[in-house]
Amino acid sequence: MATLSLFIVLLFLPLPYSYADPDPLQDFCVADLKSSPSVNGFPCKSALEVTSGDFFYDGLSKEGNTTNVFGVKVNAGNVLVFPGLNTLGISMNRVDLSPGGIAPPHLHPRSTESGIVVEGKLLVGFVTTGNVVYSKVLGAGEMFVIPRGLVHFQHNVGDGKALVFTAFNSQLPGSVIVPSTLFASTPPVPNDVLTKAFQVDEAVINGIKSKFGMQG
Ligand SMILES: *[C@@H]1O[C@H](CO)[C@@H](O)[C@H](O)[C@H]1NC(C)=O
């Protein structure tokens, strides 16, 4: 009887049909990025206009310029720059980091991330919803995984540059960069919220906002 009730309960639960982007319904659907109206993903451009060029992308071949405060350059190979990825549920990034550089704490709302270090020495870590950090220093050829939606970071702890390629189970994983989300949004998150959240006074919050070129 208990087994039967459990079966009936399971029958009516809204079970997930996909763990990341939905499955494609045809071989390909090269994105028509300019089409309106917009839909979830992008409409397909006419198959008659599809060429080999739609399935190749060289945007990750060049070293990124890491001359910035974080010492990092992320080149995203997502559907917005590589329309052939549309409906296929995957994408990749190239991340260059100068010595000491960081990918600041961030998360991808629509994707799990895996990555492989190609060059350098990289501390990779993520934080669980229970505030436990899992991390490791990786060298060339070593791989990592970041569970979907969890805050994570990368830090070049070597003497030279670091290079990592990351892969996502989403054509457009999205990035929530924690520092800029909180301190450089438009319009700004109110100082009253931030002073209470971080238990500091307003001068500290304004100091951080000014680092991002924002007014208090
Ligand atoms: C890298 O970026 C910095 C800061 O924007 C700029 O001054 C520099 O010229 C760039 N270097 C190259 C090689 O493009």
TrEMBL record:
<dbReference type="InterPro" id="IPR011051">
    <property type="entry name" value="RmlC_Cupin_sf"/>
</dbReference>
<feature type="binding site">
    <location>
        <position position="106"/>
    </location>
    <ligand>
        <name>Mn(2+)</name>
    </ligand>
</feature>
<keyword id="KW-0479">Metal-binding</keyword>
<feature type="signal peptide">
    <location>
        <begin position="1"/>
        <end position="20"/>
    </location>
</feature>
<keyword id="KW-1015">Disulfide bond</keyword>
<comment type="subunit">
    <text>Monomer. In the absence of manganese, it forms tetrameric and pentameric forms which show superoxide dismutase activity.</text>
</comment>
<keyword id="KW-0052">Apoplast</keyword>
<comment type="function">
    <text>May interact with bacterial adhesins thereby protecting the reproductive tissues from microbial attack. Has no oxalate oxidase activity.</text>
</comment>
<keyword id="KW-0464">Manganese</keyword>
<dbReference type="GO" id="GO:2000280">
    <property type="term" value="P:regulation of root development"/>
</dbReference>
<feature type="domain" description="Cupin type-1">
    <location>
        <begin position="58"/>
        <end position="206"/>
    </location>
</feature>
<dbReference type="GO" id="GO:0010497">
    <property type="term" value="P:plasmodesmata-mediated intercellular transport"/>
</dbReference>
<dbReference type="GO" id="GO:0030145">
    <property type="term" value="F:manganese ion binding"/>
</dbReference>
<comment type="similarity">
    <text>Belongs to the germin family.</text>
</comment>
<feature type="binding site">
    <location>
        <position position="152"/>
    </location>
    <ligand>
        <name>Mn(2+)</name>
    </ligand>
</feature>
<dbReference type="GO" id="GO:0048046">
    <property type="term" value="C:apoplast"/>
</dbReference>
<feature type="binding site">
    <location>
        <position position="113"/>
    </location>
    <ligand>
        <name>oxalate</name>
    </ligand>
</feature>
<protein>
    <recommendedName>
        <fullName>Germin-like protein</fullName>
    </recommendedName>
</protein>
<keyword id="KW-0732">Signal</keyword>
<feature type="binding site">
    <location>
        <position position="113"/>
    </location>
    <ligand>
        <name>Mn(2+)</name>
    </ligand>
</feature>
<dbReference type="InterPro" id="IPR006045">
    <property type="entry name" value="Cupin_1"/>
</dbReference>
<dbReference type="Pfam" id="PF00190">
    <property type="entry name" value="Cupin_1"/>
</dbReference>
<feature type="binding site">
    <location>
        <position position="108"/>
    </location>
    <ligand>
        <name>Mn(2+)</name>
    </ligand>
</feature>
<feature type="binding site">
    <location>
        <position position="93"/>
    </location>
    <ligand>
        <name>oxalate</name>
    </ligand>
</feature>
<dbReference type="InterPro" id="IPR001929">
    <property type="entry name" value="Germin"/>
</dbReference>
<dbReference type="GO" id="GO:0004784">
    <property type="term" value="F:superoxide dismutase activity"/>
</dbReference>
<keyword id="KW-0964">Secreted</keyword>
<dbReference type="InterPro" id="IPR014710">
    <property type="entry name" value="RmlC-like_jellyroll"/>
</dbReference>
<feature type="binding site">
    <location>
        <position position="108"/>
    </location>
    <ligand>
        <name>oxalate</name>
    </ligand>
</feature>
<feature type="disulfide bond">
    <location>
        <begin position="29"/>
        <end position="44"/>
    </location>
</feature>
<dbReference type="GO" id="GO:0009506">
    <property type="term" value="C:plasmodesma"/>
</dbReference>
